[in-house]
């Protein structure tokens, strides 16, 4: 029967790849959010320029 420490280590080893994937997805989500915000700012600038006399 494995010790409590061995069980914790097995769980940590099993979860490590999932935690890394979650971190990667969070970084990608943040990057996408900045891309969308940048796009919205450019779109608004183009609208403002189009409306300018």
Q: State the low-pLDDT regions, or none.
A: none
Helix content range: over 70%
Distance between the termini: 80 Å
- Shape descriptor: rod-shaped
What is the number of helical segments per DSSP (H or I, 4+ residues)?
A: 1
> SSE string, helix = H, strand = E?
H
Mean pLDDT: 96
For the sheet with most strands, the description reads: none
The rounded Rg comes to 23 Å
Strands, count: 0
* SS content category: mainly alpha
Strand content: under 5%
Keyword list:
mainly alpha; rod-shaped
In short:
With 53 residues, the chain is mainly alpha-helical. It is 91% helix and 0% strand. The mean pLDDT is 96.
Structure in words:
- With 53 residues, this protein is mostly helical.
- It has one helix and no strands.
- The longest helix has 48 residues, at 4-51.
- The N and C termini lie far apart (80 Å).
- Helices cover 91% and strands 0% of the residues.
- The chain has one helix at 4-51.
